[in-house]
Amino acid sequence: MNALLPRPSILSIEPYVGGESKLPGVNRIIKLSSNEGAFGPPPGAVEAIAKAARDAHRYPDGHATALREAIGARFGLDPARIVCGNGSDELIAYLILAYGGEGTELVMPAHGFVMYELAGRYAGCRVIKVPERNLVADVDAMLAAVGPRTKLVCLVNPNNPTGALLPRAEVERLRAGLRDDILLILDAAYAEYVTEPDYDPGQALVDASGTTVMTRTFSKIFGLGGMRLGWAYMPAKVADVIGRIRGPFNVNSAAMAAGIAALAEPGWIERSVAHNTEWRARVVAGLEAAGIKVWPSHCNFVLADFGTAEAARAADAALKARGLIVRAVGGYALPTCLRITIGAADECQMVIDALTEHMRG
Ligand SMILES: *Cc1c(COP(=O)(O)O)cnc(C)c1O
Fold first, then answer.
1. Which of 45, 52, 107, 264 could be disulfide-bonded to 257 (CB atoms 3.0-4.6 Å)?
2. Distance of CA 141 to the CA centre of its chain
């Protein structure tokens, strides 16, 4: 009679599907499906995790004080307005739950990161996906989509899975066009990889607007996806709100120790960016030479466009046959494309060789 049911919006959520990591019958798997960084975890972080194990019986610092201070020092931010999370995904969900809800709307670009749609539905928001222009977020269209019920606007910059970068002036124009009762979430998961000189991952806008949050992660350039560690920089009043709803020990002690050590790893970012910039260009050149269209990327991946969904599936199968796992992005309404992470040098070369051979037929 009385069936146990969750809120109706919950059942409209398709569970998140991560990048694949196994291939039956293939020995050496090369996983280029989750943008996990080319070099593995920083050695200092590995050591810090092992050390933290000895104190595993102690509850972690629920305020992540040492980690917030290390992040603040590294990026020139006020630690009091940094909130750490069990991955930035957790913080994204809290922000959307806190400011969205039934009867509200969340506006995002058509090919934006899927977590925003999932968390928006979880919160009960109507999620509005705004068409892009040439796979770049269209600020005019986003502003036109904003209505009286809009409470959240979400922008990943540069974007996953397209790699597109919205110029700083356009991001500022977006914020300037939004009412002050709308929270703008700027997700800068790939900030460290960006080499554009005037790029602002969001911190300037957080300070200037009072209604903007920037989210960041240790899962990409810092190579700590398995630790689940993210952070966000926000106005004090938003930090107060998240402080009321987050789990009191949402970040574990090994993750905090790893994060602090990763920030201190000498030359890690510089070496990672240099490798990424060099090999991303080589992968782009190699794929273009093979006759594949590649969308411009500012991240540690490229979006290869095979023209048809069938051609993308065939390329995916050819890569898998060689043990190379990349990311199909049909779920992002990009069925003709594959997203390929920039891995180590030999892994990138294998992708170039495999796709060159595949395209020759
Ligand atoms: C990888 C990624 C994240 C990171 O999520 P974590 O929960 O910190 O691992 C956030 N946003 C985007 C757009 C990403 O690609």
1. 52
2. 23
Domain boundaries, the chain: 16-40+268-360, 43-264
| Per-residue pLDDT at 26 | 78
User: Stretch 319-346: mean pLDDT, rounded?
Assistant: 97
Pocket lining: 230 vs ligand 1, CB cutoff 6 Å: yes
The pTM for the full model equals: 0.96
Query: Which CATH architecture is the domain 16-40+268-360 placed in?
Result: Alpha-Beta Complex (3.90)
What is the residue with the minimal CA distance to atom 6 of ligand 1?
87
Task: Determine the Cα–Cα distance for residues 58 and 249; give it in Å rounded to an integer.
Answer: 11
**Is residue 18 scored above 90 in pLDDT?**
no
Find the length of the chain: 361
56 falls in which pLDDT band (50, 70, 90)? very high
Q: What is the pLDDT of residue 67?
A: 98
Q: Buried b / exposed e across 22-59, counting CB within 10 Å, b at 16+?
A: ebeeeeeebbbbbbbbbeebbebbbebbeebeeeeeee
Nearest protein CA to atom 12 of ligand 1, as residue? 189
Contact call for residues 108 and 154 (beta carbons, < 8 A): yes
Average pLDDT for 200-212: 96
Ligand 1 pocket residue status of 159, Cβ below 6 Å: no
Interatomic CA distance for residues 98 and 117, integer angstroms: 15
Indicate if the pLDDT at residue 151 is higher than 80: yes
Separation CA 76–CA 58 (nearest Å):
30
Q: In angstroms, what is the span from residue 160 Cα to ligand 1's centroid?
A: 9
